[in-house]
Amino acid sequence: MMGGNQLHRTDWISAFPFDTRCFVPAGDTIIGDGCWIGSRAMIMQGVKLGEGAIVATGAVVTKDVPPYAVVAGVPAQIMKYRFSPDAIQKLLSARIYDLDEKVLLKIRENLQSDNVDALIEFLQNHTA
């Protein structure tokens, strides 16, 4: 669910949007590759979810979420990161989501693991 109905201006006498002059753009919402968004979560306008981010069920995300972070709550806060900072940099550098479908099929066993180094090694040895 996208949040942030920008048509209801609380600074006007009537908060009802009689016409489109009320609209205040807040920017594009960007959902990175590999994100998981729990049910009934609300992502506000202009927020960016980094690659691999996880948004907990019912969370209200009002700020950008870094890659591979897990956020929860109202407003959403970072609870933890899925991997170490070093592993996150390796994953981002690997550009997994830009790989050809055939390569993704080759690495699916590595993707179903928490061993980032094994994935990077496989990619270096089998996709060059």
From TrEMBL:
It comes from the Bacteria. InterPro entries: Hexapep (IPR001451), Hexapep_transf_CS (IPR018357), Trans_hexapeptide_repeat (IPR050179), Trimer_LpxA-like_sf (IPR011004). GO terms for molecular function: acyltransferase activity. Keywords: Acyltransferase, Repeat, Transferase. Gene3D superfamilies: Hexapeptide repeat proteins. Pfam families: Hexapep. SUPFAM superfamilies: Trimeric LpxA-like enzymes. CDD domains: LbH_XAT (cd03349). Belongs to the transferase hexapeptide repeat family. This is Uncharacterized protein.
